[in-house]
Amino acid sequence: MKPWMKWAAAGLVVALLAAGTARTLSARKARQTALQAQQIAQKTEVGIELAANDLVQLKPVRLLQTISLSGPITALHTAWVKARVAGELRGLSVREGDSVQAGQVLAHIDPTESDARVRQARQQAAAAKAQVDMAQRSFDNNRALVSQGFISNTALESSQASLAAAQANFAAAQSGADLATKTLDDTVLRAPIAGQISQRLVQPGERVAVEARLVEIVDNRQLELQASLSAADSLQVKVGQTAQLTLDGTAQPISAKVVRINPSATAGSRAVLVYLSLAPGANVRHGLFAQGSLQVGELTTLALPLSAVRTDKPQPYVQVVNHNQVQHVNVSLGTRGESGGTPMVAVTGVPEGSLVIDGNVGSLRAGTLVKTTAPGAGAP
Fold first, then answer.
1. What is the pLDDT of residue 270?
2. What is the pLDDT of residues 129-140, one digit of tens each?
3. Nearest C-alpha neighbor of 360 from the set 71, 76, 55, 125
4. Where are the beta strands (DSSP E) in the chain?
5. With a threshold of 0.85, does the pTM exceed it?
6. 356's torsion region: left (phi>0), alpha (psi -120 to 50) or beta?
7. Which residues in 237-276 are b (16+ Cβ under 10 Å) and which e?
8. Which residues are 310's β-sheet partners?
9. What phi and psi, each to the nearest 5 degrees, are found at residue 298?
């Protein structure tokens, strides 16, 4: 065989092998592409299965318009028992949590000095009274002598002036005795209101100064929430409106009603204080912090739960199920409020009756197939 024929045969074999390899690789790639397409189609066909409570139907809702508020709870009646005289404190036995009645004796200040001043003032008043009696007798005698012509009118006028001075001294001494008696009475410390002891700042045996705070009494039978509102929110508030409050760490709602609105805004913040009376029987204490919502109006409008509106795009949108597919529809937001305790917001841009995916599902890609048993999910 000639050499060139050998080379031609070898080239033909190589060409046949290359063509076979190419066909094999092409077939394998085609199978892989088909398999991937099949897998994607299967995934797309399966989509996401939604429960009925994952969807919300857009329909007219009675929307309660509310504003948020918070603030401390304070007792309507509180009082500090203060020392009215200086001295040693004695007999203070009440402690935090003890109940007291109005007028109940709580303690007393050592009355030794006050008692001595009372005796001194009374003795001075008695001496002044004796001077009045003496001046009165002298005046009566001189008046009789003047009528008989034994003394001049000048002497009578002098005795009359002495009587007036003695009477003035007696009145001053009597006032001093009354003041000393009042000071003695002030050594007895009484409860000005009924309630419970919330603070005790001193101990028996301590020497206290005038106006020193001793114990605080709080009456928890009437409680108020003091809320600070912005100028815009305060314009919507009226006396008699109701609110639902909760305490930190508890879910039990507490009813309250607006009873007063401060006529002036606070300096600096320009906030307006609003006072809400808590319903009787609420298991609440003075000084706790509460928050809640105040109902200021209501309207019926197309609304969705606030959680169903997504804001991860420049414009708010909702995820609507249409023909078993997810569609992203931009919406305009309106009035916010509550319905059945759920925060709601009025929306426009979505037809009434549309099925909207609630916020607990999360974000889904537009076009995602969904499967649900909710009625109307496949409607246009």
1. 87
2. 999 888 888 888
3. 55
4. 48-50, 55-57, 59-82, 87-90, 99-100, 105-109, 188-190, 195-200, 207-208, 213-229, 242-247, 254-265, 272-278, 289-305, 317-322, 325-330, 332-339, 342-348, 355-357, 370-372
5. no
6. beta
7. beeebebebebeeeeeebbbebeeeeeebeeeeebbbbbb
8. 317
9. -155, 155
